[in-house]
Amino acid sequence: MEIEIYKIIPFAFSLIAITISIATIFFTRQNLKRQLRLGKLEEILEILQFLDSYYRGLFMLFKDTEEKIEHIQNQKKMPAYLEELSRNKESFTEMFDMKTLINKVSRLNVLSKSYLPNKKNLKSKALTIADVYFAMYYHVKSDGNLRTKKTYTIIPKPIEMKCIISELEDQIIFEMKLGYKNIGGNEHYKYYKNQFQRDLSNAVSLEKEKREKENSISAL
């Protein structure tokens, strides 16, 4: 019996060592996948910050372009500041050219589809922001000759865009899990049509409440 026990002990230790090795490999792979996803989420945050930094200038150019179109259609005299639109547009597109925009928006689309879940419309928000930003930029660049202008009618004000990007960033920061499925090609546009305006309003309200709370704490 003692001889049999001595035979079993090395086998048991070998089995334990193999189990530990397999577990180590499994957890290492899981950790690598997690680190990869964290890196992609950080890249999404960087792109959102980049787009947000240019949004106010883009919004002003977009509004000027709309006003210029209205004056042309109604055959009104063009105000002096609208006569400067071409120069302002040229300055803006020199800082943020079409190639850079396409790279940033395309990257945001790919990363959002691949690494974001759609709980609380997280994926839809990111994809919608990319679509709206591109539509606005191209509308300005083409002097208002954008075919999808009637499609994208919700144009966030700078404060609204900043608030919803801030909310989106908060959601991304708390995202730590892996393996989410992509949403359908039209799902995020349905979100844009049916939910985006409400989310803009909610984001503004939440940001206002947060600032009021911070101010009340600072006053103590």
Question: If you had to describe this structure to a student in words, what would you say it looks like?
Answer:
- The chain is mostly helical and 220 residues long.
- The chain is built from 8 helices and no strands.
- It is elongated, with a radius of gyration of 26 Å.
DSSP helix fraction: over 70%
Tell me the structural class.
mainly alpha
Provide the residue-averaged pLDDT.
81
* C-alpha Rg (nearest Å): 26 Å
3D shape:
elongated
- Low-confidence parts lasting 5 or more residues at pLDDT below 50? none
Q: H/E series, N to C?
A: HHHHHHHH
Major sheet description:
none
Euclidean distance between termini CA atoms: 77 Å
Beta-strand level of the residues, as a percent range?
Answer: under 5%
Count up the helices: 8
Query: How many β-strand stretches?
Result: 0
Summed up:
By secondary structure, the chain is mainly α. It contains 8 helices and no strands.
List the helices and strands and how they pair.
Layout (H helix, E strand, L loop, with lengths): L1 H72 L6 H4 L1 H11 L2 H18 L6 H20 L16 H16 L13 H8 L1 H24 L1
Helix pairs in contact: 1-3, 1-4, 1-5, 1-6, 4-5, 5-6, 5-7, 6-8
Quickly list its features.
single chain; 220 residues; mainly alpha; 8 helices
